[in-house]
């Protein structure tokens, strides 16, 4: 029989438990405020750009000042230091034009309506540049967003799959029992990493193979390279999850910390849209996130046919993050919940 007094007592106790946990309470208040502040800076401005133009130049700021075309509103000018990095973007309609002011050339994609329109604007201000052309079919959005979706799925699986389990082990005194065994913190953490790595890669492989039968995803690179990038990315994300949960004893606190890690990555790591043309400080923030490098490297392999050498920077960052987070986790790991 339902008794309201018992029900009310449980509600009161649960509320007191939450509000007495100062760290969780503070996090629940600060997290939405923090997101609002970040996005108010990141996406504020005069309006959204309609076209995107790549500029082959070492110092974009200096060449933009005297160039009337580069003062045009609603056009994003993206700096590229090498032409071969920009050409695949133009071929796949990722950008609408390329300008090389050093050699007085510009490139347009004759199969892109946006390329046609931005050239009309450009010709009005052009002075002595030679017109070059390229061709290429636009890449499907589903092919472009595929690495982001799988990367995001891996991120949630790695972070929450490890973070909550460690805290539950600690709360249920499982870790305290393990402490009485010869098992070291590094052995326990490494075992968690390997176990989660297998689960994540297995699930991603199964889902990718199944979806590929229906969507026929584009693949310009090597599946082996893509797999190695997924391994490096998953390891860095799992290590981050281990570090976050290494001393947490509250499921609510670790949930808040995991949300703090996942939401910025989901929004600023290039999962849904490219960060090219975004403010520099937003791009600098995104560089801190392992998901940024995972998605960037996987997307380069899938849509541009990049090799491991081409994405060596992203791989180096991911492996470095893994080593740092793993060592810190082993150093800071706590077996007890009553510290």
From TrEMBL:
It is a multi-pass membrane protein. It comes from the Bacteria. InterPro entries: ABC-2_transporter, ABC2_TM, ABC2_TM_bact-type, ABC_2_transport. The chain crosses the membrane at residues 25-43, 144-167, 188-208, 220-244, 256-275, 313-333. The keyword Membrane applies. Residues 111-336 form the ABC transmembrane type-2 domain. It is found in: Cell inner membrane; Membrane. Keywords: Cell membrane, Membrane, Transmembrane, Transmembrane helix, Transport. Belongs to the ABC-2 integral membrane protein family. This is Transport permease protein. It comes from Thalassotalea psychrophila. The lineage of its organism: Bacteria, Pseudomonadati, Pseudomonadota, Gammaproteobacteria, Alteromonadales.
């Amino acid at each position: 029989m339902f008794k309201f007094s018992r029900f009310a007592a449980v509600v009161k106790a649960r509320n007191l438990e939450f509000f007495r946990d100062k760290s969780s309470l503070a996090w629940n208040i600060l997290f939405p405020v923090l997101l609002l502040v970040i996005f108010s800076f990141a996406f504020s401005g005069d309006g959204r750009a309609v076209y995107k133009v790549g500029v082959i130049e070492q110092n974009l700021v200096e060449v933009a000042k005297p160039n009337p075309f580069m003062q045009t509103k609603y056009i994003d000018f993206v700096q590229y230091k090498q032409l071969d990095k920009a050409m695949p973007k133009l071929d796949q309609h990722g950008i609408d034009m390329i300008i090389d002011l050093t050699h007085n050339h510009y490139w347009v994609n004759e199969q892109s309506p946006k390329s046609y329109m931005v050239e009309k604007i450009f010709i009005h201000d052009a002075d002595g540049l030679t017109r070059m052309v390229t061709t290429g079919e636009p890449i499907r959005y589903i092919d472009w967003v595929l690495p982001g979706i799988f990367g995001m799925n891996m991120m949630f699986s790695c972070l929450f799959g490890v973070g909550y389990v460690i805290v539950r082990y600690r709360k249920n005194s499982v870790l305290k029992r393990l402490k009485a065994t010869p098992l070291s913190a590094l052995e326990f953490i490494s075992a968690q990493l390997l176990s989660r790595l297998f689960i994540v890669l297995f699930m991603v492989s199964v889902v990718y193979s199944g979806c590929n039968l229906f969507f026929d995803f584009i693949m310009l690179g090597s599946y082996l390279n893509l797999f190695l990038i997924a391994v490096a990315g998953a390891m860095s994300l799992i290590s981050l999850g281990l570090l976050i949960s290494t001393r947490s004893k509250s499921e609510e606190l670790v949930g808040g910390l995991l949300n703090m890690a996942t939401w910025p990555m989901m929004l600023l790591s290039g999962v849904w849209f490219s960060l090219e043309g975004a403010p520099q400080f937003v791009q600098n923030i995104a560089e801190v996130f392992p998901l940024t490098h995972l998605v960037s490297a996987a997307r380069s392999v899938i849509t541009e046919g990049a090799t491991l050498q081409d994405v060596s920077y992203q791989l180096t960052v991911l492996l470095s993050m893994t080593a740092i987070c793993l060592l810190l986790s082993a150093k800071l790991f706590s077996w007890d919940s009553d510290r």
